[in-house]
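Milestone M4 deliverable, item 7.
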Amino acid sequence: MSGPQPTLLLGEWACLGILCQGPTHGFAVAGRLKPDGDVGRVWTMSRPLTYRALDQLVVKGCAEAVGEEPGTAGGNRTILAPTRLGRRRFRQWVVAPVLHLRDLRSELLLKLVLAEASGIETSALVAAQRMAVDELAAAHGDPDPTDVVALWRHESAQAAVRFLARLDASGSLAAR
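Output delivered:
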């Protein structure tokens, strides 16, 4: 595929990351995205939104049908797998630092969870994210305590600095 690549939504990245762990059907992907699922702890999606995201991955050339298996309630389930393009895009996305402080809770945690489940080394991501967050924290400096937005950004940046330092020091994901 040449030319600009279609942008994926965070839910599509979540589905693609699950598919990159092994071919599966939409019902299984939706199960992992439930609030009590391993990925759903970070990023939750309803079953209809999961199927829509999977359809979009196929349309965008990032996933393809590779087979079918009988469903438990009748009918067949389509087995999906990432395409070569999908795998490449996922591997690029999952190790790239998050650009906005507001996206750390959702996007960075999703990347860390998916990378861990996929056996992808995260130490470079954590190091790059630390540098990016350090820059953001420095930009927010010492805020006026009466400016609630500036104060929130400052405190969020400080919390992110502490989280990444602790993650980096423990090597909890990087060493796996």
